[in-house]
């Protein structure tokens, strides 16, 4: 695994670029919703923010999570080594537990007003498509990385599991944010395991009860297990309003306004104190 570390950025970049291109083509051919704003207005900022995020992460955390996992492995630190788990079992369990951490972290960013001010930039996109899966404030990315590093060390997650998880997380974020129409039967089967575009789109509704549901990025089980699952938006996917009431001005789609958004006025939180109260079924 030490030999892989120098190539880790490329190993993440190649599947990321491939899935981004695939989802962009797929949603253009079979869109779920009619976009309210053209790609040329949104995509430069959404793609620009991921370049900025990547630069900031590499400057602050040069070895990222995989490097920290290698260091922890060398010391035999963490829950999984303490339990005597190794090999494929440790890899699979580490991926599952890291996914749970991301689910809980997502809920935390909705529940704590200061963290919501960072996270709400992601929700302020007035359309949701594959590039929305890239749209996170650099400060949120740094806080998220600190949480991830703490989880990696606490779990003693194998470095290969961390690399696979990061590839998987990027891929599923691109997939479930895509403005992609899946056949209803396929969506119904897939969401028993994975978060689908229709499932996650509910989370981007302007309605607070819907915003505070469907927090998962990868596995659908966590929302069902913790009671935050909502099958469909009340207004339907074609009729629902996306984004936030506080940021409806198309000028807020510009990169400069996105970066200063945490400092601006408006509601501080769609806090987790608002119960999702999902309907039966």
Describe the structure.
- The structure is a single chain.
- The chain is globular.
- By secondary structure, the protein is mainly alpha-helical.
- The longest helix has 25 residues.
- The protein has one domain.
- Helix 5 crosses helix 6.
Task: Give a quick set of tags describing it.
single chain; 281 residues; mainly alpha; disordered C terminus; transmembrane
Q: What can be said about the biggest beta sheet?
A: none
Rg result = 18 Å
**Measured distance between first and last alpha carbons:** 45 Å
SSE pattern: HHHHHHHHHHHHHH
What is the total domain count?
1
Helix content estimate: 55-70%
| Structural class by secondary-structure content | mainly alpha
How much strand? under 5%
| Strand segment count | 0
The assembly state of the depicted protein chains is single chain
Individual helix count: 14
Mean pLDDT: 91
Poorly predicted ranges: 268-281
Shape: globular
């Amino acid at each position: 695994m030490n030999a892989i570390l120098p190539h880790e950025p490329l190993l993440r970049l190649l599947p990321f670029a491939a899935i981004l291109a695939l989802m962009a083509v797929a949603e253009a051919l079979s869109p779920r919703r009619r976009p309210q704003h053209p790609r040329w207005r949104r995509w430069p900022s959404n793609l620009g923010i991921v370049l900025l995020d990547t630069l900031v992460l590499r400057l602050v955390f040069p070895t990222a999570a995989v490097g920290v996992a290698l260091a922890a492995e060398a010391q035999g630190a963490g829950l999984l080594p303490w339990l005597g788990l190794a090999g494929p079992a440790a890899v699979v369990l580490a991926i599952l537990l890291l996914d749970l951490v991301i689910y809980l972290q997502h809920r935390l960013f909705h529940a704590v007003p200061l963290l919501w001010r960072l996270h709400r930039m992601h929700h302020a996109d007035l359309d949701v498509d594959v590039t929305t899966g890239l749209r996170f404030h650099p400060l949120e990315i740094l806080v998220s990385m600190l949480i991830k590093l703490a989880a990696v060390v606490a779990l003693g997650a194998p470095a290969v599991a961390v690399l696979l998880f990061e590839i998987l997380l990027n891929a599923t974020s691109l997939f479930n944010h895509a403005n992609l129409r899946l056949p209803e039967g396929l969506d119904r089967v897939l969401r028993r395991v994975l978060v689908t575009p229709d499932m996650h789109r509910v989370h981007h509704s302007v309605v607070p009860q819907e915003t505070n549901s469907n927090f998962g990025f990868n596995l659908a089980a966590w929302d069902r297990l913790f009671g935050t699952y909502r099958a469909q938006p009340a207004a339907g996917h074609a009729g629902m309003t996306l984004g936030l009431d506080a940021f409806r001005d198309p000028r807020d789609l510009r990169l400069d306004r996105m970066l200063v958004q945490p400092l601006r006025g408006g509601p501080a939180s769609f806090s987790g104190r608002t119960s999702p109260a999902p309907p039966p079924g």
